[in-house]
Structure formats: structure tokens, C-alpha cells
Amino acid sequence: MDLQSYLKERAQWVEAALCRSTDDESIPETLRKSMRYSLEAGGKRLRPILCFAGAEGVGGSADRVMPAAVALEMIHTFSLIHDDLPAMDDDSLRRGKPTNHKVFGEAVAILAGDGLLAEAFYVLAEARGIDARLQVQVIADIAAATGGRGMTGGQVLDMEATGKKQGEAALTRMHLYKTGALIRASVTAGARLCGATQHQLSLLSRYGEAIGLAFQIADDILDVTGDQEELGKDIGSDEGKGKSTYPAIIGIDASRRQAAALVDQAIAAVVSFGAAGEPLRAIARYVVERKK
Amino acid sequence: MDLQSYLKERAQWVEAALCRSTDDESIPETLRKSMRYSLEAGGKRLRPILCFAGAEGVGGSADRVMPAAVALEMIHTFSLIHDDLPAMDDDSLRRGKPTNHKVFGEAVAILAGDGLLAEAFYVLAEARGIDARLQVQVIADIAAATGGRGMTGGQVLDMEATGKKQGEAALTRMHLYKTGALIRASVTAGARLCGATQHQLSLLSRYGEAIGLAFQIADDILDVTGDQEELGKDIGSDEGKGKSTYPAIIGIDASRRQAAALVDQAIAAVVSFGAAGEPLRAIARYVVERKK
What we know:
Chain A is mainly α. Chain A has helices spanning about 5-20, 30-40, 45-55, 65-85, 100-105, 105-125, 130-145, 150-160, 170-195, 200-225, 230, 235-240, 245-250, 250-270, 280-290, and strands spanning about 95, 95-100.
């Protein structure tokens, strides 16, 4: 399969839907502009794509899960806006563009994040033509992956670990919260909405957890070895911020081996999906082979 | 009916449920403490009580809507934590206690708000034994009332109006977004989950909108005439912050008349509910007669 076209096409689908979802004049203009600024700032759209691939893996279609794909990208974008705030990572650039608070000020940036988080649940709940029982399960999964039991909890663990030496187990726990939970929920949301069985969901859960961690290890490696221009951010920025990374704890070679092993695990988890699982397997390989 | 016992009893119900909902060790400790600190800081618990009263108004029970009541108070608490932040209203006291960021720092306070918002949707979606179709409608209503089309949008309108002279229409619009939307959603959520008809929902919507605005006008009046000690905050703080208020725009007497007229409208809207609507009517009177 041609993964690049697959990724590009789906990124375009979700970008068009994101644009439609936030084009509502009942949202006050400043807030709407600020929300859209960050939604339109680009990115790989990995979570929506995983949601589509999860749906396709169990014989469903991307169409059916578009609201979930939109919601997942809104939640990811909310987290980036809040992570970049002066009180958090204090970043002034994201993907080569000024961060939200640099453009709209801190107060509006906080509210744009809040607005995107609430909007995500609006989009999820407002979708029609889906079995409502599946819908509430997906909302519960995504909410758990977003809040204190997931991403938001992981951000607190990350902050508390910054500047301290932490072991591999603590680093892995932090990443499972901070990025793993939402990545796993992305894959399973798509599949669940398309009627996946419990067995399929448990395989996809294993897949999602493995690629979530592999993604993070690859990120850490790129932060040391990547091309600054291609990456769109400074090399070595993790170390500069006092953040623990896999290469710093176990070395570059062991990090590479571990990422590769996780990709193998992810691929093995979805081998029974046959041809329908090919996008999931190609994405797993892409997660560690990407240059940015 | 004895309104004071009614309010006190229901506040205790929701406080016990809030405590249970956040007592989960999978939420990292610092975050959990910070979320619970603000949830336990007291308050009237008006939104959960309205949710119960809405349920009872259509012959339902408080038990059935407890998850919605909990979620509404979590969302209200999230908004208070973020409103108090240095980048927003920069308040150091709330109900006589240090604000969340004064105790836990700005970063954790932002994340505690985020965590409570996500947790609210988790609690709403995770509830079982409810018709899932009603559940997704309630989630959509509450999410719309929370995000850019509601409370979060209202906070942006409030900030943009601060320090500027605004007319009564603009002030009313701001309050309908900032507090009215969630108060209305609180009343209708309870009723909807207990099988309210469309006609009942539209009456309760009218009730909620009227008391939401009456509540805000009463707040503005208390800010000028209230007892500092009873209120737990400085008198005249709105004016000091450059905020428009009803008394400043239309005068104290006209503000009192308008609040009373809104209460009459609210009571009239639910007159057909008979005895089951008595708590709703008593709450409408209380909203403008309260001293804090």
C-alpha cells in the first residue's frame, strides 16, 4: 500500500471536517479564531488517522467515525495549547509558527484549549446515526484517556519529573499516561464505533499501547539525532529542559531496539485482521521510521 | 416546603458523590489533591441542585441523575479555577480560601481545571442504567453549554468587555453565555434523563434562562449592597475590576425590579408542573433573595 497517500488523504479529510466543525458564529469571534489558529497549524493528524485505521481494520468506514476523528484532534490540539503556556513548557514556537498564547495572549489561549476540549465532547455526542450505547462507551474511553487517568495526569507526572533523574519504569509510566492513553483510545474508538468485538478491541488496545510507546521513543531519538530543519524544532531541546529521555537512560542503540520490538508487537497484535489491518501495520512501521 | 433543608440535603448528596468520583489512585496524587481541593471548597452547589429539581419536576428521582449533578459541579469548579488564574481575574481568595493556583501553582491549577472538565464527561458517559440516547443528548447539551457556545465563550466576552462601557443588551448576552447556558443545561439535564417531554424541556429551558439571568443580576446587586463577611469577598470588587454590572448601567432599583420580573417569569414557566415543581419555584425565589 502507498502509505504516504493514505496518510495525506486522511489528514485532508479530518482537516476539512475540523474546519466545518468550528465555523460557527455562535462562538465569539476571538475565541473561534484562536481555536482555529491552532487547529489549522498542521501536524501529522496521527490520532484521527489511527481512528480511521481502527475503523477500517474491523471492516468499517472512515465516514462513520469522522466525529470521533475530529474530537481526537481537538483534544490533542487543546493539550498542545496548554502545554505551551508560560506556566507549563513556555514554548514560543510550535511547528515553526508562534504558539497560541504568543498570538492571542495567555488568557485567550487557556480558553481556546478549554473550548476545544468541551467542543470535542460536543462533536462526539452530537453525532447521529450511531448506536448510542457505543457512542457513550467511546465518550467514556476518550474522556478517561484525556483526564487525570490519562493525558492530563501524564502532564503532571512529566512536570514533576522534570529536572530529576528518573528510571525507565517511571518514564514509561509517564508516557503511557501522557501520550499512550489517547493514542490507544484513538485506535479503539474507531473500531468500537464500527462494531468491533471485545476480542478485536483488546488486540487493538495492545496495538495502540505498543505504538504509543514506540512513537515516544522515536520522538526522543529524533530529539537527539534528527534534522533540525525537517523537525521544525531545536535538537536537544528535551535535555535542555531537564526532561528524561529513553536515549539518556538506556542509550541510543537500546532505544532503537526497544522501539523496533514495540513495532513488532503492534504488528503481531493485528496480524489476524488480514488485509483490512494493512494500514494499521504500515502506520506502526511509519511511527518509528519517520524523520519528523 | 423547607427550602433550607432541601438545599442542604442535596448539597450533601452531591458532595459525597464528588468525593467518591475523584477518589481514584490512578489519578496522579498532586493532580487528584488539586482537583479535590477546589471541589471541597464549598459553594451553594446550585447547578447540581437545579439538576435534581429538574428531575423531580418531571416525576424523576435525584438518584437517577447523580452522575449529571456531579459532572455539572465539576464543570462549574473547573471554570472557577481557570477564571481565578493570574492570566484571567488573578484572584487569590475564593470563598475565603486561597485559590487553587495559590496553593498548587499555576501549572497544576490549569491541569486541575482540565482534569475536572474531562472527568465530568467521563462521569456522564460512564453512568449505566440510563437510556443511552438520552445520555448522549445530555452530554451534547452540557458540552455546548460549557464550550465556545456557552461558558467559555462568555468568559471571552467578559474579558473583552472589561474596562469598557457596555450596554444592557451586551451585558445580558455575556451573562447568557457565561452563566445562563450552564444553569439552563443543569435544569434540563435532570429532566431529560428522567424522560421529560419536549414541551416540559422547553418550559424548563425558559425557567433556567430566567433564573440564570436573575442570579447574575442578584450577584451584581450583592456586590454593591451585600455584607462583606457573609459574602466572603470584597464589596465593590466588580467595579474595581472594571466590570460592567446591572446596577451601574440601569441603577439598583431597576436591577431589583428586573430580577423580580425574571423570577416571576421562571415561576410562571413551571406552574403547570404542580406540586412536583415546588422546589423549582422555591429555588427561583431564593436566587434573588439570598444574602450570599
